[in-house]
Amino acid sequence: MIELDIDVKVPRLSKKQTNRANHPAKTTEEYYRVSFYIPLLDSIIEDLKSRFLSKENKLLWNLCLLVPRYIVDITGEDF
Question: Is the pLDDT reported for residue 44 higher than 90?
Answer without folding.
Answer: yes
